[in-house]
Amino acid sequence: MDAAEFAPTFGSRYFFGEVARRELALPTRINAAFSPTLSFQFFAQPLVSSGDYSNYKQLLSPSSFNFNRFREGTAVGSGEAVRCQGGATCVDANAVRYFDFDGNGTPEHTIDEQDFNVRSLIGNAVVRWEYRPGSTIFWSGSAGNGATWWPGFRHVARLAGIAQGADRQHVPREGQLLAPAVTGGDVPTSSTTSRDR
Predict the structure, then answer these.
(1) Do residues 26 and 119 lie in contact, with contact meaning Cβ atoms separated by under 8 Å?
(2) Any residues with CB less than 8 A from the CB of 146 and at least 6 apart, and which?
(3) Which residues, 6 or more positions from 55, have their beta carbon under 8 angstroms from its beta carbon?
(4) CA angle 30, 27, 117 (to 5 degrees)
């Protein structure tokens, strides 16, 4: 039988641990109306979260709360020669956790260390300018995990569908303005105009 197998729980081993989690979030929302025709909306949520796992244990029998608790030890050696000194589980400098099931100091099973650190930022901003009654320009920007703020101009008249369903080809490149041309009550058609940098 493989050392990682465990007959009392049908050949699989089930590990549990306690996690100390710390989290800091700062949701920020700004709504500003500079005039009846010009407004600004902004939302951002920076998040920092970390978790440290400890007190690892293994389920000894199904449908029970019987556990074998692994005492934390110190990893000595490197590569396949790692041993857990002073305990039945240890973690090395490469964030690999070792488990010694039979207590002889030689690990029989490894997993990636489960501790984590997460940093995240999501946000969006919208500027609305109604330059004449019934005709509005929106500037919008958004950011998510790994994304960057990008500018996009959308002209919305009576039929505002283009703001929500603009084709990929209409997404402006840097230095371009996306401004659908509107005449009277017709359905807007899009056009792009370049701007000198």
Answers:
(1) no
(2) none
(3) 17, 18, 69
(4) 150
What Rg do the C-alpha atoms of the chain give, in angstroms? Answer: 29
| The pLDDT of residue 182 is above 50 | no
8-37 per-position pLDDT tens digit = 888 888 889 999 999 999 999 999 999 999
Contact status, residue 88 vs residue 75, Cβ threshold 8 Å: no
- pLDDT 10s digits, 95-143: 999 999 888 878 888 899 989 999 988 999 999 999 988 889 999 888 7
| Alpha-carbon span 123 to 148, nearest angstrom | 10
Tell me which residue of 99, 108, 106, 113 sits closest to 70, measured CA to CA.
99
